[in-house]
């Protein structure tokens, strides 16, 4: 398992097939997955994992497992993926946590670390977060990560048209951050 980043409380590492059960606990929780219109099936969870593993091969980055340093618990995912926006692919910081870890600062801590990694290691000039309009908690994480809303788009997923806000931060707009 390849460690990508460490923060004060977290290790972000590449996912492996052995993470499948932890990933299912995350992706198969209806409340956690409300922005995706509900829980995933076993097959959808495996497809999600396969997609991350393929991203590592294609881009050398993707969504990573979030591990608490103090307990070694698998608490969610955070990372950078390429996402469609206005007929192009943009680097997006995404995050998804098990419900019992919500509102404890883990998503913000991991997202800030990913922002710094995206700017300083991957050399992206701008990073995005594309967030469903109903997902106010994720919108607050994007704002704490220095992002501002720049656009609204509609995504079609699971037969539903879903408004999303596009948040963006540019490298020249940020000051150096000490990662917690």
From TrEMBL:
Domain (N-acetyltransferase): residue spans on this chain: 10-167
Pfam families membership: Acetyltransf_3 (PF13302)
Transmembrane segments: none
Protein name listed in UniProt: GNAT family N-acetyltransferase
């Amino acid at each position: 398992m390849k460690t990508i980043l460490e923060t004060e409380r977290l290790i972000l590492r590449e996912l492996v097939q052995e993470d499948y059960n932890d990933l299912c606990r995350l992706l198969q929780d209806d409340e956690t997955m409300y922005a995706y219109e509900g829980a995933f099936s076993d097959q959808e969870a495996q497809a999600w994992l396969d997609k991350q593993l393929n991203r590592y091969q294609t881009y050398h980055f993707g969504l990573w497992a979030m591990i608490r340093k103090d307990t070694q618990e698998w608490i969610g995912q955070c990372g950078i993926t390429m996402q469609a926006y206005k007929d192009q692919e943009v680097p997006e910081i995404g995050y998804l946590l098990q419900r019992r870890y919500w509102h404890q600062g883990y998503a913000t801590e991991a997202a800030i670390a990913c922002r710094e990694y995206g700017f300083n290691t991957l050399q992206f000039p701008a990073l995005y977060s594309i967030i469903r309009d109903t997902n106010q908690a994720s919108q607050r994480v994007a704002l704490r990560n220095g992002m501002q809303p720049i656009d609204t788009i509609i995504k079609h997923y699971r037969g539903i048209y879903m408004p999303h806000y596009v948040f963006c931060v540019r490298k020249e707009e940020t000051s150096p951050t000490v990662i917690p």
